[in-house]
Amino acid sequence: VNPTLARLRRILVMVPWLLDHPGVAVEEVARRFESSPPEILDDLDLLGYCGLPGYGGGDLIEASVSGGQVVVRMAEFFARPLSLSMREGLALLLAARATRDSGVLGNVPAMDRSGDDAGTDGPLITAIAKLEAHLGARAEVPVAMDLLAALWPAVTDHRVVDLTYQSASKNETTVRQVEPWTIRLVEGAWYLQGYCRSAQDQRSFRLDRVKDLQVTEETAPDPPGDVRPPVYRPALDDPLVVIEVSPQAAWIADHVVLTDRTQNKAGWSRLRFQTTTLDWAARLLLRLGDQARVIAPQELADLRRSHAQSILALYDGPESTNNP
Amino acid sequence: VEELIGWLLELGTDVELIGPDDVRAQLVTHLREMMDPA
After folding, report:
1. What DSSP letter does each residue of A167-219 carry, written as one string?
2. Any residues with CB less than 8 A from the CB of A132 and at least 6 apart, and which?
3. How high does pLDDT run on average in chain A?
C-alpha cells in the first residue's frame, strides 16, 4: 500500500475517533490505529496544516499533546465517522460472520479493547448487527458457513481432509485428500489452500464448489511458512486464447490473467490470455453473447457454439437448433 | 436478469429455466446470437 495513502486513510479515521475521545494517551492512539507513537505525533503535527478554506486562525484544525494526552479541536466537520463503502462493508461482514460461526471465539462474549463489557453478546455480535443494519438487504450474502466451521479445526489441528470437489475449469467432480494449510477470503470467495495428495502439489479449492468434506483423524505435516493467496498461474502448455469484447463486456478482463490487451477504434478490447481448459473459457464466453468475438483458436469458437446449441435444445427442441 | 442468465448459461444443460416467459425469451435470444454471430 502506498504509505501516503495509508497515512491519509489513518488520519481520516483517526480524527473522528480523537474528537470522541478527548485526552486519550498517544500510546493508546498508536495501538488502536496500528501505528507507532512517533508516527501519530507526525500525523497530529500535519493536522495543524489542515482545515477549511480561509486557512487562518479558526479555520485550521488544532491538535495538541500535553502530558502524553491528545486533544483535537476545530474539527467538528470531521465528527461523523466515515461510512464504509458497500464493498468494504460486505468484506467486513463476511469476515465477522465467518469468525463468529467458526467458533474460534468460543461461547464467551469477547471484551472490547478497552476492557469494557460490550453487553451479553460481545462486540463481535453487536458489530455484525450494526453492519447488517447498515448494509440493509444486501447483507444476505451466502457463505459456506458450515464448511468454514468444519474446516477451521482441521486447519488449526493439521488434520487431513477428504474433499469432494467440483472443478470449475474441468467441469468434473473429484474426491481428493488434502493437507489443509489456510483458509482465505479472496475477491468475495472463500478458498481452502493446501497440499493436494491427488495432484501432488499445492492447490486452492473454492468452498462453494466443495460438495462434501470429511475431516480425518490423520495428522498432516506443518504447512509452509509463506502461503501466497490463490491466483491462476498459467502453465506453458495451457491454451492461448484471443477474444474481442465490447465495452459492456470488458469486465471479463478482471476474471482472466491477461498477457496482452489492445483497444480498437470502436472501443472493443482485444484480450489475449491463457486458460486451463478451452471448455472453461467457452462457458465463460457464453455469458457475453454477441458482446464477444472469438479470434483464436477456432476450437474455442466451436466449443462455445456447441455449448450454446446444447442449451438452446432445452428451450427450443432439437428441430429449432437447425434453424437459429 | 442479466446476472440470472449468466448463471444459467454457466450451469449449462444441468438446469432449465421454467419461467417467467420473458426471461426465458431473453435467454433464447442470447443463445441464438451466439449461434449466428453478426
Report:
1. ETTTTEEEEEEEEEEEEEEETTEEEEEEEETTTTEEEEEEGGGEEEEEEEEEE
2. A93, A139
3. 81
Does the CB of A315 have a partner CB in chain B at under 8 Å?
Answer: yes
Asked whether the beta carbons of residue B9 and residue A283 sit closer than 8 angstroms, the reply is yes
* C-alpha cell, A249: 463486456
In angstroms, what separates the C-alpha of B36 from chain A's closest C-alpha? 7
Q: Best of A312, A316, A322, A323 to disrupt the B interface by mutation (most B CBs within 10 Å)?
A: A312
Distance from CA of B19 to the nearest CA of A (A): 11
pLDDT per residue as tens digits for the range A205-253: 888 788 889 999 999 998 887 777 666 666 677 789 999 999 988 888 8
What's the CA gap between A94 and A139, in Å, rounded?
9
Nearest Cα residue to B8 out of A234, B18, A195, A214: B18
- Rounded to 5°, angle at Cα A113 from A189 and A27: 110
pLDDT digits (tens, 9 = 90+) for A133-157: 777 644 444 556 678 778 888 988 8
Using a CB-CB cut-off of 8 Å, the residues of chain B touching A308 are: 31, 34-35
Torsion of CA A194, A198, A200, A205, to 10 degrees: -30
Q: Which amino acid is at A279?
A: D
Q: Give me the mean pLDDT over the A65-81 stretch.
A: 83
Cell 488434502 sits on residue: A178
Please name the helix (run of DSSP H) or strand (run of DSSP E) that holds residue A15, with its range, or none: helix A3-20
